[in-house]
Amino acid sequence: MIGAPFFIVGLPRSGTNLVARMLNRHPQTSVALDPCMPVFRSIRDAVIRHHGDAALRRRYPPGLPFQDYYFDSLAPMLLDAVLGANPDMLVPAGEIERLRIDCCGRASLESPEMGRRMEALQGCTYGEVLASLFAILDDASPGKQWIGCKEVWIEDFIPLLARVLPQCRFISIERDPRAVVASLLAMAATDPSQAAHAPSYMRHWRKGIVLNRRHQTDPDLAGRLLLIRYESLVDDPKGSARALCGFLGLDDDPAMVALSEDGWTGNSSYRHVGGDVYAESRERWLTQLRAEIIAAIDYLCGPEMRLTPYEPAAPPHLDGRVIAYLLRANQETGSWRSDSGDFHADLAGEALRYALLEAGDLASESEFMLRRCFLFPEIHHAILHADGCRVSG
């Protein structure tokens, strides 16, 4: 019997690894950790290559980091193209060999055995490549009811995966953006190679919030997407384990929360001692982050926070502290970034987001501007009417 596929998705440092480890403890599930990001980057590049717009191809050359889609005039076109990607796109000559090498290297970071198995990746179309991936994962864990794959950054590929894999389900993890950034900065302090551009993380956080809300209303994903908050998971691990089992139609298993029995010591950036589910890092950002970083995160993420239980520490406002921090962060690029690299243009875009919220409901002719600032007009509307309150600017 071939197991049914599922994905665990979310932003790095949001708890995806924790959920994967919990599900790996269930006797009817198996989860591979981050084996195939090169496949999704290749799909993104193929989508751009096959698109009829020459300007899009010039703007987004192959190999770019995953985009957050904010502000750039061509970004809505790219987002729509990725969401509507055709699984029958042909894999270019030589690309499958490159994907085998890259996926072997990627998967080997967590499992040398899985890295070796990635050498069997094959397919003439991207749909066939994704099917081949799950055949490899299934072969590594025969007899499981569910075969999972944990990959970060890929919420925009969920519609494609749902079309290619009709049985596939999706578990998306969300976490307070300040906790995500605090964990990111703590990790970078001990391993500089893991440093990233923090404002780009903030923009990807809000992109994930937007896409999750959109996916929740997609009839093709009805009953196939489970949204889990990290804070709820660590506050009530047994209840969250039951929710995961219910979503996958599995019997509850108390072993799911006994992670240290497999020798796992956790994935905390704070060198936490003990490998079971713990809540100590839930609000550690309150003492770990400087006030100006908190203010900057609240400013960049504040509108989308209104679609979640998270609340800004203070009314978001573009003051001198925020500008100074974002300017310093702009100079400390890290290993990658997804903003434009034009600090003033991006800052103007952030200010425009608040101006559009202050303007209230806008006519349909504003759709293009709303898409550049909120990805979709309905998100602007949802933020505007989330609680009946104005958003500071």
Task: Characterize the structure shown.
- The relative contact order is 0.14.
- Helix 2 packs antiparallel against helix 5 and helix 9 runs antiparallel to helix 10.
- The protein has a five-stranded parallel sheet, with helices on both faces.
- The chain is built from 18 helices and five strands.
- It has 393 residues and is of the alpha/beta class.
Give a brief rundown of this model.
The chain has 393 residues and is of the alpha/beta class. It is built from 18 helices and 5 strands. A 5-stranded parallel β-sheet has the order 2-3-1-4-5, sandwiched between helices.
Core attributes:
alpha/beta; five-stranded parallel sheet; 393 residues
**Rg, please?**
21 Å
Biggest β-sheet: count, sense, barrel? Answer: 5 strands, parallel
Structural class determined from secondary elements: alpha/beta
Strand order of the largest sheet: 2-3-1-4-5
> What is the molecular shape?
globular
How many helices in DSSP terms? 18
Order of helices and strands: EHEHHHHHHEHEHHEHHHHHHHH
Helix amount: 40-55%
What is the β-strand count?
5
Binned strand content: 5-15%
Point out poorly predicted stretches.
388-392
Chain-averaged pLDDT:
92
Distance between the termini: 56 Å
SSE inventory with pairings:
Layout: E1 4-10, H1 16-24, E2 29-33, H2 37-50, H3 54-59, H4 75-83, H5 95-108, H6 112-117, H7 126-140, E3 146-150, H8 158-164, E4 169-174, H9 177-190, H10 198-216, E5 225-229, H11 230-235, H12 237-248, H13 285-288, H14 291-305, H15 320-331, H16 343-358, H17 367-374, H18 377-384
Parallel strand pairs: 1-3, 1-4, 2-3, 4-5
